[in-house]
Amino acid sequence: MRDRLVAAVLDGSKTSTTGLVADYEHEGEPLPEAGRREVVVDSRERPVAVIEVTEVRVVPLAEVDLAHAVDEGEGDTSVAGWRAGHERFWHGAEMRAALGDPGFTVDDATPVVLERFRVVTLLPAPGG
């Protein structure tokens, strides 16, 4: 899945992403901020690009709009479809284990972090 999402970042079809405020809090990490740059890595942990966060919003899950859902680049054409896919991930065993809460669920009021970003630099392939 990572390589599919990385490819979408590289081809420009993925310009947004969503995270759970609960995940940031659990990890003790600050929320992202506009202007922050980070390296995108593929499934082999190879750096492939540098992105810059251009916008960050924290909203209740019920307020995620269609533009954000579409801009995640996963092929969703409705907020309902986007949300169903994200809920499968957020309610999955891996996320529940990461949060230390086997019964974790989201609802309309769950705060989510909506990030927009742009590719700043494409990095050369190893050996190239």
From TrEMBL:
InterPro entries in the cross-refs: ASCH_domain, DUF984, PUA-like_sf
All residue ranges annotated as the ASCH domain in the record: 1-121
Pfam families: ASCH
SMART domains: ASCH (SM01022)
Protein name as catalogued: ASCH domain-containing protein
